[in-house]
Design goal:
The structure is a single chain. By secondary structure, this protein is mainly alpha-helical. It has a domain of about 90 residues. About 30% of the residues lie in helices and about 5% in strands. The strands form two sheets. The chain has a two-stranded antiparallel sheet with strand order 1-2. Strands 3-4 form a two-stranded antiparallel sheet. It is globular. Keywords: Heme, Iron, Metal-binding. Pfam families: DHOR (PF06537). This is C-type cytochrome. InterPro entries: Cyt_c-like_dom, Cyt_c-like_dom_sf, Cytochrome_c_Peroxidase/MauG, DHOR.
Amino acid sequence: MRNLTSTDFLDGKRLFDDGGCASCHIPKMQTGGYSSFAVLNHRTFYPFTDMLLHDMGEGLASGFPSFSASPREWRTAPLWGIGLSEKVSGRVGFLHDGRARNIEEAILWHGGEAKDSQEFYKSLHKEHRNKLIYFLESL
């Protein structure tokens, strides 16, 4: 269910922002004006990513470098459509390698540059954690 005006969704969005999640999972972007396809110029979209590499800590380290990324660096995964993963692909697996069985586990795996956001999530009352998850599942 994608009720983007419900109280739970809006509360979850506020928690997402308060937890610093939006500093890497940037909600809104706009394309430039130089595409060969005019229809793509100046388009607003909501990827919930900055498309950059971030140090995610030892817990998510792959054990080997990937091109210019160190084993601890991962590109910020886009969150758009994250709540439809099972419906679209028939499976559930989150993070870069699918190790998290649900969104909460994915949040709890965050470390390194995202450690403060992980700690923020862990400090929330269960009701607020549920609202944040509801928000993410509604993207």
